[in-house]
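Consider the tokenized backbone below.
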């Protein structure tokens, strides 16, 4: 059942991606409703599949692929809701394929991971970490899109994707709103980690903890630079991607080494 549901969801994600590409390249605005419906149905199947993979009789199976699928589902959900009130539809072209790949990896690729019965406090830390990572993933995609828009404007390219984007100032404001939200969630995730994790600097958590803290400082510097020095899109892109890469290494890097290299 999970593999069948995953297959249907992957198909719907790819179909929504194709329609979004048509919408952007041919300016077919009437496709928006189809994209939202297909993306929402894909997310529903994605979420149900991920829940079945995560929850076992022995506890939560937060393997690398399962965690990646959960993050992708969270990113998709946030984007679908946000697109109803903000002009973020252009991010569908990147998020839907990533969600399809993440779900496929979780549903069809083998993994070695022992489920663990986490306490309520640790689960709250995990959920905050996943949501903060999801929001900052959207911010990273928004930063890349903003950089592309700024470059196109300087080169006087006003057709194609650029014509579908909001004004540069709106895109920039949305970016820093995302960064601030993700930063606050990351702050709460780190606080709950220090409170509820018994040994945060244990062998398998030390690198993850140090990289997460380093990422927090990068985002803190970025937000301070924005408020105090008026940093704009190009500077924001460099700091945003640096913080995101550190966070990605903290989560996926450590899990990949433990599961795929060390088999622990």
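A designed sequence for it:
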């Amino acid at each position: 059942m999970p593999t069948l549901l995953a297959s249907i969801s992957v198909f719907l994600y790819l179909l929504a991606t194709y329609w979004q590409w048509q919408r952007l390249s041919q300016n077919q605005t009437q496709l928006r409703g189809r994209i939202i419906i297909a993306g929402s149905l894909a997310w529903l199947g994605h979420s149900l599949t991920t829940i079945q993979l995560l929850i076992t009789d022995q506890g939560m199976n937060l393997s690398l692929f399962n965690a990646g699928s959960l993050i992708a589902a969270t990113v998709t959900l946030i984007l679908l809701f946000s697109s109803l009130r903000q002009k973020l539809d252009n991010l569908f072209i990147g998020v839907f394929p990533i969600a399809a790949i993440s779900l496929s990896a979780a549903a069809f690729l083998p993994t070695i991971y022992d489920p663990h019965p986490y306490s309520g406090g640790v689960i709250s830390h995990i959920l905050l970490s996943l949501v903060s990572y999801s929001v900052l993933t959207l911010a990273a995609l928004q930063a890349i899109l903003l950089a592309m828009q700024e470059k196109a404007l300087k080169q006087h390219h006003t057709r194609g994707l650029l014509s579908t984007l909001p004004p540069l100032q709106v895109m920039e404001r949305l970016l820093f709103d995302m960064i601030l939200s993700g930063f606050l969630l990351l702050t709460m995730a780190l606080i709950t980690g220090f409170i509820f994790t018994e040994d945060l600097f244990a062998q398998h958590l030390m690198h993850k903890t140090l990289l997460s803290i380093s990422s927090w400082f990068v985002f803190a510097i970025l937000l301070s630079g924005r408020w105090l020095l008026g940093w704009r899109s190009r500077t924001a892109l460099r700091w945003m991607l640096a913080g995101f890469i550190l966070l990605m290494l903290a989560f996926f890097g450590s899990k990949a080494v433990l599961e795929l290299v060390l088999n622990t």
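The CA atoms of residues 80 and 157 lie 28 Å apart.
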